[in-house]
Design brief:
Elements: E1 2-5, E2 10-12, H1 29-40, E3 44-48, H2 49-55, E4 70-74, E5 93-97, E6 107-111, H3 118-128, E7 134-136, H4 140-148, E8 154-159, E9 168-169, E10 179-183, E11 186-192
Parallel strand pairs: 1-8, 3-4, 3-7, 4-5, 5-6
Antiparallel strand pairs: 2-9, 8-11, 10-11
Length: 193
């Protein structure tokens, strides 16, 4: 898992719809380089619908040299606009949904049952596809789904110096970090189960 949070423990502000489409930056450029390096080393990267709507991420490797991970999106009701970056068909993308939908080149739709352990279904399907490493870069809801089910091995936490004072609280991890580093104005922590 990976997320960035402010010094006062928030991963995002309470954004109104008119502010969707652009990420709320918390960390610095060095942190972004580290994130892109990590992405280049993993098989897949997963986000939920809310993260796509709010940030419109591309989830590619841009400020580091390496391969792009498979982009995995949770879109239960197919509510995401066809114009989001993840649907540009430039990088293989897999969308888990509760509906049947015809796939396109580099954009596959996979039906799952969201009322029956969806995270476990996704992990099983990814394993069948020989995807053996997954970065969960979603928002609070998706991250907490993995944490509450104890379905994580490692968490990369970036803490910037910004203060939001209120907003979306960051997930909580048990224990203390096994590794920490200073990335200029951002602290980097690695938790392992």
């Amino acid at each position: 898992m990976k997320w960035a949070q402010t010094a006062d423990g928030f991963i995002d502000i309470d954004r109104k719809v008119e502010f969707f489409g652009q990420p709320t930056w918390i960390t610095n450029e060095i942190s972004r380089i580290v994130v892109h390096k990590i992405r280049s080393e993993e098989d897949a990267i997963l986000v939920g619908t809310n993260t796509v709507q709010k940030d419109n991420p591309s989830l590619t490797v841009r400020v580091w040299s390496g391969r792009n991970p498979l982009r995995v999106v949770l879109d239960r009701t197919l509510r995401l606009s066809k114009d989001v970056e993840l649907f540009d068909q430039k990088v293989p993308t897999l969308v888990y949904t509760s509906f049947q939908k015809e796939s396109l080149p580099n954009l596959e739709y996979q039906k799952i049952f969201f009322d029956k352990n969806p995270i476990e279904q996704i992990l099983e399907d990814l394993y069948k596809r020989k995807i053996l490493s997954l970065i969960v870069e979603g928002g609070r809801e998706v991250l907490n789904s993995f944490i509450s089910r104890n379905l994580w091995d490692e968490a990369h936490l970036f803490i910037g110096q910004k203060l939001f004072y209120k907003g979306i609280p960051a997930p909580k991890l048990p224990g203390t970090p096994q590794y920490s580093d200073d990335l200029d104005e951002t602290s980097f922590h690695v938790y392992r189960k």
